[in-house]
């Protein structure tokens, strides 16, 4: 696909029951595709090469997000700048399960963006070619501090070409953390849910864990959790979370879902056995 460059680019801890009521899991159906399989990624090493010169706005946004994550996790750190954000994310991922940390991020986003503003945006920009292209350009202009330089690219939707894809050249967050689990649970999954639920715009984020690039495809539904290639990736050898706590390796959603599935299977087995015993007695 030819690419056409358009642009360069104290939250309180709420009970889990509150999140479960407001954010029910969804099962989308469109599958995102990675550029290469997972083989070799777990043993590969990544080297940080980019040097960022953050502006006053960048520092303001970074510090605000870092403080929000620290407030949500209940654990603070004394670091500053992007390093503080990475530390806050790593600590939060150790305290919460994958599902819980996704909900913490969603709640932080809902507090950061007042509901009346989100409702206004959703009303003025219903799903359309213009809305998809607007969100793409907006992302490249105002979120470089979080993900690094990006550009708008062209894709095809229903036989029509649109500039609705944000190509992140090398994700700053993934580069700094070297952690697939943090990418999935603190960025990809909560961002997809928040944009869809708050703005009414489907979003599929397709990270490439080989070169650390990523594509944000506005207007495309993400795949179901069980079918998403990104959730089947092993983590990097230099994963900061794993290096700090080797007793608790990096965890992602499929592993959690597998445990839930085993638990349900065990429960069904016990119930079936009980019914069988009752039938024998009768």
UniProtKB/TrEMBL annotation:
Q: Which GO terms describe its cellular component?
A: plastid
Q: Which segments constitute the Beta-carotene isomerase D27-like C-terminal domain?
A: 145-225
* GO biological-process terms attached to the record: strigolactone biosynthetic process
What domain of life does the native source organism fall in? Answer: Eukaryota
Please list the GO terms describing molecular function. cis-trans isomerase activity; iron ion binding
Q: Mind telling me what this protein is named? A: Beta-carotene isomerase D27-like C-terminal domain-containing protein
């Amino acid at each position: 696909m030819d690419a056409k460059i358009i642009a360069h680019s104290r939250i309180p801890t709420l009970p889990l029951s509150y999140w479960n009521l407001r954010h029910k899991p969804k099962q989308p159906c469109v599958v995102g595709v990675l550029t290469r399989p997972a083989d070799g990624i777990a043993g590969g090493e990544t080297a940080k090469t980019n040097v960022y010169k953050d502006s006053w706005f960048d520092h303001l946004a970074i510090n605000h997000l870092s403080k929000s994550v620290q407030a949500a996790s209940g654990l603070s750190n004394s670091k500053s700048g992007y390093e503080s954000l990475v530390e806050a994310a790593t600590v939060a991922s150790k305290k919460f399960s994958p599902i819980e940390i996704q909900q913490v991020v969603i709640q932080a986003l809902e507090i950061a963006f007042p509901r009346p503003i989100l409702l206004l945006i959703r009303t003025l920009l219903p799903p359309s070619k213009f809305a998809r292209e607007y969100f793409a350009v907006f992302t490249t202009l105002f979120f470089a501090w979080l993900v690094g330089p990006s550009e708008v690219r062209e894709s095809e939707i229903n036989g029509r070409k649109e500039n609705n894809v944000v190509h992140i050249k090398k994700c700053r967050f993934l580069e700094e953390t070297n952690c697939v689990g943090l990418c999935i649970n603190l960025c990809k999954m909560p961002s997809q849910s928040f944009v869809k639920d708050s703005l009414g715009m489907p979003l599929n984020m397709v990270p490439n864990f080989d070169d650390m690039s990523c594509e944000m495809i506005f207007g495309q539904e993400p795949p179901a959790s069980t079918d998403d290639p990104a959730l089947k990736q092993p983590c990097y050898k230099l994963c900061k979370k794993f290096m700090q706590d080797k007793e608790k390796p990096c965890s992602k959603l499929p592993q959690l879902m597998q445990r839930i599935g085993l638990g349900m299977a065990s429960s069904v087995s016990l119930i079936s056995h009980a019914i069988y015993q009752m039938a024998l007695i009768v």
